[in-house]
């Protein structure tokens, strides 16, 4: 959790350092003493100053994957891409899937960008179809 020194709080609020120290000593501004200095948490400062409550950042993870499939003909590539794209239809998933096919080399690259669970679903479908 982010914490501020008395000097930083004074700058943020446009107050004198002694005023902020007095607020801390009087108990009006909660603080923790570390050595000879006080530390004021961001949440305590927001509450004291009447600022809108700051919600903690929501953790979010995304994945970027490139799957390479060799030895795949045009018909199999069409079938695989149709199966993957139809599995994504109808539900919001925030996932981007692209197919790059080199017919001369029978080489397919599948680019998957998005959330972990939706990406895993695509990878499971590709895995199952490649193993057939």
Automatic annotation (TrEMBL):
Query: What Pfam families would the database entry show?
Result: HTH_17
Ranges for domain Helix-turn-helix come to 4-49
For molecular function, the Gene Ontology terms on record are: DNA binding
Q: What is the protein name for this chain? A: Helix-turn-helix domain-containing protein
Its taxonomic path starts at: Bacteria, Bacillati, Actinomycetota, Actinomycetes, Streptosporangiales
């Amino acid at each position: 959790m982010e914490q501020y020194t008395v000097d930083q709080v004074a700058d943020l609020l446009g107050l004198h350092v002694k005023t902020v120290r007095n607020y801390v000593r009087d108990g009006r501004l909660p603080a923790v003493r570390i050595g000879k200095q006080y530390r004021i948490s961001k949440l305590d400062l927001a509450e004291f100053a009447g600022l809108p409550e700051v919600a903690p950042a929501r953790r979010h993870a995304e994945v970027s994957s490139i799957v390479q499939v060799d030895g795949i003909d045009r018909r199999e590539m069409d079938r695989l891409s149709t199966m993957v794209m139809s599995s994504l239809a109808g539900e919001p998933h925030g996932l981007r899937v692209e197919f790059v096919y080199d017919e001369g080399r029978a080489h397919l690259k599948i680019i998957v960008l998005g959330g972990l669970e939706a990406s895993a679903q695509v990878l499971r479908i590709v895995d199952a179809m490649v193993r057939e």
